Amino acid sequence: MTIERLLQKLRKRDEVSDEEEKILREIIEPPRSVAPRQYLIREGEPLTRSTLLIEGIMGRYKDMRDGQRQIMELHVAGDFADLHGFTLKRLDHDVMTMTECRVSSAPHDALNYITEHYPRLTRLLWFTTNVDAAIHRVWTASLGRRDAIARLAHLVCELQQRLQLVGLASASEYGLPLTQADLAECLGLTPVHVNRVLKELRERELMTFRSGRVTIYDLPKLKRLAEFSSDYLYLDRRSS
Amino acid sequence: MTIERLLQKLRKRDEVSDEEEKILREIIEPPRSVAPRQYLIREGEPLTRSTLLIEGIMGRYKDMRDGQRQIMELHVAGDFADLHGFTLKRLDHDVMTMTECRVSSAPHDALNYITEHYPRLTRLLWFTTNVDAAIHRVWTASLGRRDAIARLAHLVCELQQRLQLVGLASASEYGLPLTQADLAECLGLTPVHVNRVLKELRERELMTFRSGRVTIYDLPKLKRLAEFSSDYLYLDRRSS
DNA sequence: CGGCGAATTGACCCGCATCAACTATCGTGG
DNA sequence: CCACGATAGTTGATGCGGGTCAATTCGCCG
Fold this sequence. Notes:
2 copies of one chain form a homodimer.
Chain A: H1 4-13, H2 18-27, E1 32-34, E2 39-41, E3 49-55, E4 58-63, E5 69-75, H3 85-88, E6 94-97, E7 101-107, H4 108-117, H5 119-145, H6 148-165, E8 173-175, H7 180-187, H8 191-203, E9 207-210, E10 213-216, H9 219-226
Chain B binds a DNA duplex (30 and 30 nucleotides) through helix 8.
């Protein structure tokens, strides 16, 4: 249970040979625990390794001058939180644990070695950073063009899909140990308004979010409300 | 004047050897012209080549059910508009010319060849897709947490910086042949409100946008208003 | 001169923010 | 065991930024 979820996700998209699996296992360091609400990476700091999230939830944050924050992406088990740091060498945002997490690292030297000797695996890792970008695009569209209720519904659908992919969600519920204020920081809303929107979703009998758990009563309706399509998560096999 | 601007940008970030330049030149096909407002790529369609923008402006679009659109990124000369398509094999958005454009293509087979034989160049191309993602993140933060005037100012600063990088902008002006409605689709606003915000920027003597040209009167003040820092464009040399 | 898309401006409206008070939950120490 | 303090959630009253609708004007081209 270290890189299993990562492999599970990669294999949904493309084949991973035994040799590729072996080299991946070799470069991933032993996991360690991190307390909730800890900064793993600060904006601008030089990076020499990338972080694989084994368990828990992490977020990519940007701080604004006035103390407001925007979360740009949430990470779940099996995600690299900062694989883009491998080519960027520093980040334009912070990375923080939202909950208690278990994480491992992949040294950039080792990733470099992969790019020198495993081109297919390299393309697959590149692919995963491009899926992160696709998620960014959907969030951009949400913030630009969806109203508060559709935005929240979309986030709930996205996490359902991504958590299901690694066996952590069913069609009707999953654990999401975040606060309403966290959701507000994802959605470009205030905590107060998130609360009101959750109330409306509850009253419309679409879903509830209580004590760190999402319960979905009618997923198809929720998806329709959110105008959600999972295409952007690239869950099907690639031809290449 | 085909891949010159691309090389110019890449060399700002890292070295490109003669051999790497040679292979890049070989895989890029001869440029062709495309009229304004033409779809180059439609969401979901299978891709076998990636598009290098030689001249003009292109945009990445998402359409919403109700006919609204959100632009997720603008591309300028020297950008690959869909290099992410190389690993994704289809896109989650449309790509459209905003102006008359000159474009070339790089077949995915040839890019594959690069990943097999030129790991350093591969990392550099991977890097450029990660910068696109960084741009997405900044737009996300803009839409989530900046008000209309700061959002518009930020976009103007970003384009100034990116166009300057390829020699198409000075500190005080650059050509930007878009309509106010185009800007609205970037900024998650209505054309009417973009108009009002432009008026305010004019009256505060920060900048003007008229007949396809941005004129900046006070770039430092504009950057302060926008809370703009160019860090996310990764313009400095990487250590790797 | 006429036509058409883009820009401009005014009047009015609404979704979400703001401010403030109150409740619920839970861990901690006396 | 209860008092407490802290954090999260809930609700109401009010205000504002940006949307909507509609009428003009501008600029360009035929």
